[in-house]
Amino acid sequence: MDALTDMGEESRRAPGEAPGLSDERCRSLLSELDGLKRANDAVVLAHYYTRPEVQRAADYVGDSFALARLATTVPQRTLVIAGVSFMAESMKLLNPDKRVLVPDPSADCPMAHMVSRATVLEARERYGDDLAVVCYVNSTAEIKSWSDVCVTSSNAVRIVRGLSQHHVLFIPDEHLGRYVAQQVPEKHVILNDGRCPFHAQIGAREVRDLMRAHPNAPVLAHPECTSEVLEIADVIGSTAEIIEAAQNSAAQEFIVVTMSGVQAELERRCAPGKKFHFTSSSRCPEMDKVTLGQVVACLRDGVGEVPMPAHADAAAATLDRMLALASNKG
Ligand code: 13P
Ligand code: SF4
User: Fold this and answer.
1) Which of the chain's termini has less CB crowding within 10 Å, N or C?
2) What pTM did the predictor assign?
């Protein structure tokens, strides 16, 4: 599945709109946040995996591609990125003149570090100009700077299919890389030894148990899952594509094989009564680190500013290429 995430899939929220927030502390934080956003000319962008109250506080919620693209179009001078550090780093690379704040700088995707320079150099040595190094956006700026083009889970298949090179080194995620290789068999895709530990630990056996318990529920899976899980999925897609599939389906219940942070948006967007079943270990502990209090504090205290990463020009070029290729409808 290689459909692009449409801009309309992020959720624009009116200031102060906070359904279900009854807790006094949350209300006071949200009201403080509104004032701080105005005073700082700031916008809050949150990933679907963050805590529900963080998503409620955000002006936009989206998948990693939609947020990266959106960040280049919003007028505000300050971007607060409620997500893990590679996301904030990418926003800084794409928006060098803006102030980018990350509420919890320790929230870090482990997969973003899982490739060595030697792997890239060996492949370049072996395949020369007929190799493209394709870097999943879940990667540090340094890793991006070694690469030719970035992709996200919502555009990887389409971007790889359109490359002129025959050989593709896909880093760092072996599972997304394997999925892309299956979808684009005309390319020679070289896989790397890296993965999301939280998606990779979801077992096909547990998914099958859920299928037996809920026989009418389609299985919606993120391509960071293992191939054994993807083989039994009805829909494979990014977080935004999973949410969209559930929203557009006539089914009343779904087995959702990704991090359960997406539940907040699934419930917000789907007709009342639709049910979502997750596997037992389905939280991203890094995204969970980001709290509403930290979102407020980074604006109030001016902390968590993301510096321009080293290797910025080369790293930004890979993101710019992704945005250009993704908007090319050919
Ligand atoms: P999306 O690109 O679907 O937002 O996924 C990001 C991610 O980190 C998945 O684990
Ligand atoms: Fe990284 Fe996995 Fe968390 Fe996604 S779910 S941010 S890949 S650790």
Assistant:
1) C
2) 0.92
Tell me the per-residue pLDDT of 227-252, one tens digit each, with 9 for 90 and over. Answer: 999 999 999 999 999 999 999 999 99
Fold equal for 111-194+310-327 and 198-283: yes
- Provide the CATH number for the domain formed by 4-108+287-301 in this structure: 3.40.50.10800
Distances in Å between the Cα of 265 and the Cα atoms of 11, 46, 62, 244 are 9, 11, 9, 10
Annotate 181-195 with DSSP letters as a single string.
Answer: HHH-TTSEEEP-S--
* Separate counts of helices (H) and strands (E) for the chain: 16, 12
Q: How far is the CA of 286 from the centre of ligand 2 (A)?
A: 7
pLDDT in tens, 186-237: 999 999 999 999 999 999 999 999 999 999 999 999 999 999 999 999 999 9
| C-alpha of residue 109 to centroid of ligand 2, in Å | 5
259 lines ligand 2 (CB under 6 A): yes
Q: Which CATH architecture has domain 198-283?
A: 3-Layer(aba) Sandwich (3.40)
CATH 3.40.50.10800, applies to 111-194+310-327 = yes
Write the residue with the smallest CA distance to atom 6 of ligand 2.
109
Q: Classify 12 as helix, strand or coil.
A: coil
